[in-house]
Amino acid sequence: QQPVQSPQAVILREGEDAVINCSSSKALYSVHWYRQKHGEAPVFLMILLKGGEQKGHDKISASFNEKKQQSSLYLTASQLSYSGTYFCGTDIAGGTSYGKLTFGQGTILTVHP
Amino acid sequence: EPEVTQTPSHQVTQMGQEVILRCVPISNHLYFYWYRQILGQKVEFLVSFYNNEISEKSEIFDDQFSVERPDGSNFTLKIRSTKLEDSAMYFCASSSLFRTGAGTSAWNEQFFGPGTRLTVL
Predict the structure, then answer these.
(1) B31–A99: do the CB atoms touch at under 8 Å?
(2) Percentage of chain B exceeding pLDDT 70
(3) For residue B44, which of A32, A71, A37, A100 has the smallest C-alpha distance?
(4) Which of A110, A82, A113 minimizes the C-alpha distance to A7?
(5) B44-60: per-residue pLDDT in tens?
(6) Is the Cβ pair B110, A44 closer than 8 Å?
(7) How many folded domains does chain A comprise?
(8) Domain range for residue A14?
(9) Range with top average pLDDT, B22-26, B100-104, B107-111
(10) Does B50 sit within 8 Å of A101, measured CB to CB?
(11) CATH second-level architecture of B5-120?
(12) Chain A residues with CB-CB distance to B under 8 A?
């Protein structure tokens, strides 16, 4: 039931791009993306809804393929501040779920100067 | 900017003792959550709470756990008899609904508190 993220870890140089994927075995109502820095709370990045609507960070883009139950987060021209662990959280029930999110195992992104 | 607060930031307790973790959600949010994160692992859902009752709970949230909203601002997680494996970071979160362009309701982002690190010895 837990979504699967790939890759598990990415190492980049500043300015390089990365894609993080999130795949679910269940039909999804929405996908939420969060970034967590070491020792801190997860911070919201994006919501992608069934039907194509998105909400969130204007410097980060993402996609949501409802048929494949997959989402991807695109980090372009990476900065040192992008380093952290990225989690996707999936909502399989929409308005009936009371907002429960099931998180993937995380993707560790490290950006070097 | 509104934020979720949690106290204490770190709690050390002996196995078998009761602990209460406290949270103050964002004031106009109606949906509250507890998550836990064992060191180096993913964030795991424990429980959601709406309208003064539990709306959903995970398998982790057994009889040793309880939640309460004792007043209009605090939201607490109690662990009755702590075990070694309860050692983790506990995050409180709150959220709201928003109206989508299609006219349906959808979940807004969850605002996470800074967490309480629970260490059970």
Answers:
(1) yes
(2) 100
(3) A100
(4) A110
(5) 999 999 888 998 899 99
(6) yes
(7) 1
(8) 4-112
(9) B22-26
(10) no
(11) Sandwich (2.60)
(12) 2, 29-30, 32, 34, 36, 40-44, 47, 49, 51, 53, 55-56, 87, 89, 91, 94-95, 97-106
- Tell me the pLDDT of chain A averaged across its residues: 90
Residues 6 or more apart whose CB falls under 8 angstroms from that of A30 comprise: A47, A48, A49, A50, A90, A91, A94, B106, B107
Residues in chain A: 113
| Cβ distance of A91 and B55 shorter than 8 Å | no
What pLDDT is attached to residue A94?
62
Q: How confident is the model at residue A88 (pLDDT cuts 50, 70, 90)?
A: very high
Distance, C-alpha B81 to centroid of its chain = 18
Question: What is the CATH classification number for the domain harbouring A92?
Answer: 2.60.40.10
* The two three-digit tokens of residue B79, written as one number: 């662990």
Write out pLDDT tens, residues B74-100.
999 999 999 999 999 999 999 987 777
